[in-house]
Design a protein that fits this description.
Length: about 70
């Protein structure tokens, strides 16, 4: 148990690590890391309707920019 707490404390952003397989949505950065595709390619695919995307607002109410 203490190793779990230590691991969480060592993370600077205080966010738990959730495996991508357990997520409903991925950020563009996460998709880039998984696929090796460029940010521009992904944005173009979203704009062309070839890739579904959702804009999620953060707690400040601003759109999340990744």
């Amino acid at each position: 148990m203490s190793s779990i707490i230590e691991g969480l404390l060592l993370r600077g952003d205080n966010q738990p690590v959730v495996p991508n397989a357990d997520k409903l949505l991925l950020t563009i950065a996460e998709v880039q890391a998984l696929t090796g595709l460029s940010r521009e390619f992904l944005r173009d695919a979203i704009t062309a309707g070839e890739l579904k995307a959702k804009v999620i607002s953060n707690w400040h109410g601003d759109a999340s920019h990744d």
